[in-house]
Design a protein that fits this description.
- α2 (47-60) packs parallel to α3 (84-96), α5 runs parallel beside α6 and α8 runs antiparallel to α16.
- The chain has 16 helices and 20 strands.
- The protein has helices at 20-30, 47-60, 84-96, 106-110, 163-175, 189-198, 218-224, 249-259, 274-284, 308-313, 333-341, 359-370, 382-391, 448-455, 464-479, 485-504; strands at 11-15, 36-40, 66-70, 101-105, 125-132, 153-159, 179-184, 203-206, 235-241, 264-270, 286-291, 305-306, 318-321, 327-330, 351-355, 374-378, 395-396, 407-412, 434-439, 459-461.
- β16 (374-378), α13 and β17 (395-396) form a beta-alpha-beta unit.
- Helices cover 35% and strands 20% of the residues.
- Strands 7-6-5-4-3-2-1-8 form an eight-stranded parallel β-sheet. It has a six-stranded mixed β-sheet with strand order 10-9-11-13-14-12, sandwiched between helices.
- The protein has three domains: 7-231, TIM Barrel (Alpha-Beta Barrel); 238-331, Rossmann fold (3-Layer(aba) Sandwich), CATH 3.40.50; 341-461, Rossmann fold.
């Protein structure tokens, strides 16, 4: 049994704020989700706030909670400016306030050569932590608390530069008892979510501001990814891309899994090198994945089989991992484009410009051409534009021609204007001579391009419709079940609406 308990108790809420009042508020929020809480005393702005907060904690007397006190010095990656003696002083105060655990970084232990930490009246249980914010170091085969009894558990938090780094850290959790594995950075995020499943004693998630790279919120960890419920039998899916942090695919797919009560989870994989992810598929037990920029075309050479339509398009956005480990590819972007436009544009006989020539552009071009449209392609990469236009029996359109030529519709398939760079438009107002503009970007829901088009009185179509249609089709391919479409759509719409309100403030 874990030192910290079972189930949701193994998710440790990170409470970190500059004032005692805000820390207290975060503690109350944390305890509504889990009973294990790390208190970052080093984040409090001065000793007076630390005193005030610990006095409040002592008065509250939470009996059914497990508190880990941390007062990490700058040397160990924290915010506390004091020396080792002051760090220990505040940990002693934390014990008196009711904290059962303290987190001591290895840098502090090294400065106690003639004294055992057990001689100090710090919280009874000690978590010895090692942080490397630059890389994942060479790791031993297993890790155990120091033999002299200086610690009850060991934590290694390391920056994962590659997915292979995070796999190495999780393997250490599989072999070691009383060990906490914390892969840091966006690349390490999927492993962070799977850490409990792999044997880590804890997984950390902040209540508010992230205290380490690659953290996700406590609410997401417990409700969206349900990290404390994942087991070796849980089917793992995900989205691969670079960037991928903007993606609402985890919200879309996990909402469906939760509603249908499926033992499955969908994770965001930041993939710089495709080979790095492909090597980790058996390690993570991945059963299928979505493919986004820039891997939609390069994934083709790694597939054992591909549906004929996706092969014709020359781009794949959906992959099924078969039982023998081989990969089967298909394309649901095609369906997404058609469903997004079906009530907005009479496709047959229309003249449509695709701006861009990547994987999404290829799906859109094939969908429209097969629907009877005359397709024009305009892209920065002239060679790619010509090749795509030739493949769909269309035409290449030079950028300068957009100032004078008219189209029934213009579709942007480039990532220009995507969150967080949502104040940029790929096309200028003088280049929009058409009846309808569609942006395949869905976040933000109303891109700068769509705003410009609307000001000119041009009808607009958000990429949200395409995103939802292609994602729901993916979900049904993987699960072979009917998707709870209305609920999945609603979850994404609510998230986008909330984000839009936040940006307007």
């Amino acid at each position: 049994m874990s030192l910290f308990g079972t189930g949701v108790r193994r998710i440790c809420a990170v409470v970190a704020a500059s004032t005692a009042a805000e820390m207290s508020k975060q503690v109350r929020s944390a305890l509504r989700e889990t009973r294990t809480v790390e208190l970052r005393l080093d984040w409090l702005r001065n000793d007076a706030e630390r005193t005030r907060f610990l006095r409040w904690l002592r008065k509250r007397g939470y009996r059914n909670a497990c508190f880990l006190a941390t007062c990490r010095r700058r040397e160990g990656g924290g915010r506390f400016d004091g020396g080792v003696d002051r760090e220990l002083y505040w940990l002693v105060q934390a014990r008196e306030a009711g904290c059962q655990w303290c987190d001591l970084e290895v840098e502090t232990l090294r400065k106690l050569p003639n004294q055992s930490v057990r001689e100090c009246p710090v919280p009874r249980r000690v978590l010895l932590s090692v942080h490397d914010f630059d890389r994942t170091p060479v790791l031993p085969k297993s890790v155990s608390p120091p033999a002299a009894g200086e610690a009850d558990a060991v934590k290694i938090a390391a920056q994962a530069r590659t997915i292979a780094d995070s796999v190495r850290l999780l393997k250490l959790a599989q072999r070691s008892k009383n060990f906490v594995a914390v892969p840091m950075g966006e690349v390490g995020l999927p492993a962070r979510i799977l850490a409990l499943r792999e044997g880590s004693a804890l997984a950390y998630a902040p209540i508010a501001e992230a205290t380490a790279p690659g953290q996700i919120s406590l609410r997401e960890m417990t409700h969206l990814y349900r990290a404390h419920t994942l087991t070796a039998k849980t089917r793992v899916y995900g989205v691969i891309g670079d960037p991928v942090g903007h993606s609402l695919s985890p919200l879309l797919h996990n909402t469906g899994f939760i509603e249908r009560r499926l033992d499955a989870v969908y994770l965001p994989f930041l993939v710089h090198r495709l080979a790095d992810f492909l090597a980790a598929i058996p390690e993570f037990g991945v059963r299928g994945f979505s493919v986004t920029l820039p891997h939609k075309q390069t994934i083709l050479k790694h597939l054992k089989e591909c549906e004929p339509l996706a092969a014709d398009i020359g781009a794949v956005n959906t992959v099924v991992v078969r039982r023998d480990g081989s990969l089967y590819g298909c394309n649901t972007d095609y369906v997404g484009v058609l469903r997004a436009l079906e009530n907005k544009l009479r496709i047959k006989g229309s003249r449509v410009l695709i701006f861009g020539a990547g994987g999404s552009a290829r799906a859109a071009a094939f969908a429209l051409a097969r629907g009877g449209a005359v397709v024009g392609v305009c892209a920065r990469r002239e060679k790619a534009a010509k090749e795509l236009a030739r493949a769909v029996g269309g035409e290449t359109v030079p950028r300068r021609a957009l100032r004078t030529e008219f189209f029934d519709a213009i579709l942007n398939s480039t990532p220009i204007g995507m969150h967080p760079h949502d104040g940029i438009s790929p096309l200028a107002p003088g280049e929009l001579h058409c009846r309808l503009v569609m942006d395949l970007i869905y976040r933000p829901e109303r891109t700068q391009l769509l705003r410009i088009a609307a000001k000119k009185g041009i009808a607009t179509v958000s990429g949200v419709e395409m995103f939802l249609a292609q994602g729901i089709a993916q979900w049904e391919i993987w699960t072979e079940k009917r998707a709870p479409e209305a609920l999945m759509r609603r979850a994404v719409r609510i998230a986008l609406r909330a984000e839009g309100k936040l940006h307007r403030r």
